[in-house]
Amino acid sequence: MGMAEPNANLISSDKVEGTSVFDVRGDKIGEIEHLMIDRVSGMVRYAIMTFGGFLGFGESEYPLPWKAFRYDTNLGGYVANVTEEQLRNAPEFNEDSWRDRDWETRLHKNYGSAPYWEDATTMRDPFPRY
Amino acid sequence: MGMAEPNANLISSDKVEGTSVFDVRGDKIGEIEHLMIDRVSGMVRYAIMTFGGFLGFGESEYPLPWKAFRYDTNLGGYVANVTEEQLRNAPEFNEDSWRDRDWETRLHKNYGSAPYWEDATTMRDPFPRY
């Protein structure tokens, strides 16, 4: 999609729930339950997935780093670049996890994603190295 | 808030509705109805405000460019850097507006915000000028 084209990818925050998630082979494995958004920067940081029985993961919620997803316009959903092993090894999650930077660090490490707060530091670097 | 601190600003996409919006003097003028998110980049592009009678704007929805807002942690809500005149001059809005780049351009111009798709072009510049 060219940047000069109308943006068909805008979605309301209250309608993002239920978007399909596929594995890297293109098989549907679950859905987006909701997103976690940084209300200061306006950037999505996590997507919380449910598997609904796929892969035997039951109804639990699995938060994944935003960077583990790629939106596929043909599939009309997200491709999650994660393995079953990563999902099974994910650090335990509860509502307090969102205020636990150590948990966030372990989660990103588990899924092989660079922590988003390191991006922000780089972007704000007052002495960039050219 | 330091970037090494736990992030207290993460909010669920299904809970962002109802966040207070203040004017630049700190007076509450309305609420966030919902956000419009780019599902490819994961960036919030618009916040849709309702005034609930404030300033005589009734119950209509007013989409504003995301950049017109600043989150104020002390107020616990967004400060909207817009004037009554800008709100009254805003281009007419309907559900098709989200697929109308011309409407998006007029909206950003009305509120004096640089269009987000120009940011993206700059960020993706393959020949950056140092």
From TrEMBL, chains A, B:
Any matching Pfam family: PRC
Stated name of the protein = PRC-barrel domain-containing protein
Query: Where in the numbering of this chain does the PRC-barrel domain appear?
Result: 11-86
InterPro entries, A to Z = PRC-brl_dom, PRC_barrel-like_sf
Give the coiled coil ranges: none
Superkingdom classification of source: Bacteria
